[in-house]
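Please go through the protein record below and see whether the fold suits the sequence. Record follows.
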Amino acid sequence: MPASVLFDAPGPKTRARHRLYTVLAVLVLVALAAIVLWRLYDADQFAYEKWEPFLTPFYIQAIGEAWWQTLSMAGLAVLGALVIGFVFGVGKLSDRAWVRWPCWLFVEFFRALPVIMLMVFCFYTVFGDLPISAAAYWAAVLALSLYNGAVLAEICRAGVLAVPKGQSEAAYAIGMRKTQTMNLILLPQAVRIMIPAIISQCVVALKDTSLILIVVPVGLTKIPKQLPQEFQNVVPTVIVITALYVITNLILTWIANYLQKKLVGEKKVLQVATTTMPTGATTL
């Protein structure tokens, strides 16, 4: 078995102690889960009438439409963020100061601005003339595009800088201009490096769509606002909506891992080669 170069392999006592800690942690988590379930049962949160809407076709369709609206908001926001991120990320690498500094200002401003404030600003100023639901929808899309675009711009810049310098030097040596080098050599390789970070930002965009609740409930956020008013089932509704978010994020995480394995490759464990000294040899 190859030895690790970072730390010594744990001995029997350490392994036994780790197993004990694991068992204790599992017992604590099981106890907490049991307490939560008992409190919910004691509060009559598992009654059939509180969960009945999630078995009724009409309400299932309404939740599905809300889920799709949330996914569409996140999808449009990610598309906009990708365009903004690549444009301003490459702009920050420009040799021309009149391009580089405005891109830097844009990225730093929207990275520092809270998303919820940006949503409120877009709702009341940019889309104030639209109907309330449409204004909230597009305010969330625009705000998430700007914020996540600024974050992806930094990811793009870091991805380009992570490509070995020999790639650009070889391109310049054969007479390619910087624009050709960026578009044909650096960006295709940088995208492979950025794939996991881009998918992670998609997860962030999906979760941040719920912030529009502060203005007007849109998508999945309107279900916990409307359904409990009729059935008095706040906790079951929150559990179901949370499960939908978790399932969607798990799917995105699986996609990220799959793309990373296909485009980047799996990480290999570093093995330390050991050499045996001949019999009778002396060491210094």
Observations:
- The chain has one domain: 59-264.
- The radius of gyration is 26 Å.
- The CA atoms of residues 158 and 283 lie 46 Å apart.
- Confidence is low (pLDDT under 50) at residues 269-275.
